[in-house]
Amino acid sequence: MILPDMLEAKKRTDKKSKFLYDEYKIDENMKIGKNKKYYIKTYGCQMNEHDSENLSAILEDMLYERTDDMMDADIILLNTCAIRENAHNKVFGMLGRIKHLKESKKDIIVGVCGCMAQEEVVASELKKKCKWVDIVFGTHNIHRLPNLIMEAIKNKKQEMEVFSIEGDIIENIPYKRENKYKAYVNIMYGCDKFCTYCIVPYTRGKQRSRKKEDIINEVKKLKDDGVMEITLLGQNVNAYGKDLYDDYGMENLLEDVAKTSVPRIKFVTSHPWDFTDKMIDIIAKYDNIMPFIHLPVQSGSNKILKLMGRRYTKEEYLKLFNKIKDKIKNVSITTDIIVGFPSEEESDFNETLDLVNTCKFDLAYTFIYSPRVGTPAAKLEDKSSMEEKSERLDKLNELINKYAKESNEKLKDKIVPVLIEGVSEKDNNMFMGYTDTNKLVNIKADKKYIGKIIDVKITEVKTWSLNGEVKVLEKSV
Ligand code: SAH
Ligand code: SF4
Ligand code: F3S
User: Which atom of ligand 2 is nearest to the CA of 192?
Assistant: First the structure.
């Protein structure tokens, strides 16, 4: 049994990460999933979604088949997120349901993995109160899933293996893409920014960039496989390369990925601190880099930004924001905002509203601050009540929605390129896709357009989506 340790997880040394290419192996005796099914529930960010794609592929290597019905599964994995308390509550709620299921179906294997598993409090709760959970593993040992399953079956007791390490890079873990036309590509793991409220640097280890060759080769393969859109993934992608190269950074990587001529490229998430002018120039230069940037600001108050350890001021953020808007034609910029950070007063919150009024974001993800055990902010005194925080969130969301609708309205009657992904979930006669600025469009189209980027005329505008119709003949992509 290996339990998580937040103090260990916090450590950063000069040790270089290792690149391991042969760490993932499936032996013949591990192929035990024939005629059995797996179900994975994923919480959290795109990084976790991509990890679940790894988990799926590993289980399929073991010959398990996927099911979307948990009741039908022989193995259930919860890939969890630790970013806010409500994510916790959801997972423990779900575990309650699974416990019930396991009472009548004793042989099912239940696993908890992901960022919550990296938390001491969670691991000890699982150990004490949920002994019936068969396997618990963290973000550093996804490739060990087959071994953990085999051991749990053999030993008939809970297998807990959570490493609290800076982390290495494990290459060649297979993944099963959720989307035929879009793919995630990890460019780096972990985070060294240590924003004071955030648990990610503890759950994901130190910043480790993948080698540029490994990334480019993966992108080329995906392109050959018909993938139209690549999302480069990392907690802080703009810092790509800093831990690995002296003279190769995100701007170089973006350029090299653009040169593969994969039709669309985007990247998440950008920390404003590492966003260079060169990067802006590269995004502006290449048509296949989408004019879409997620640039979390978190707060409009310098006092709060400082307490958050964000390393920029409101003025610096605005300078960068304006530079991006000036240089990248029709760019859409989205953000994340936290309200109710300890010691946020009405005047600080009003500064956040002012900033939103200035930036008029295309979209924003807004959160009430949630204290995370082990992070520095959790020790700060927090005087404002939950009621006050909720009121602030409502007020902020109202403003965000207003600007989201306004930015969509600018597209009314315009013709925009859309990657058609498939049939719309809500209406089977409609198709859905995203613009190059990452806006959702429901389209009157034909199934022959699925998987293609076509010109669409926007006919109707809503807060969260657009409606449109195919206008011009398909582009030669
Ligand atoms: N690496 C990304 C963010 C990952 S977490 C970045 O730095 O931009 C996604 C968002 O969750 C953050 O941008 C932040 O707005 C929010 N978040 C993180 N920790 C939080 C906490 N303790 N309480 C509330 N929101 C939080
Ligand atoms: Fe968390 Fe900050 Fe790292 Fe983002 S940059 S993952 S908010 S510590
Ligand atoms: Fe959540 Fe971990 Fe992502 S905490 S947001 S799943 S990196």
Answer: 3
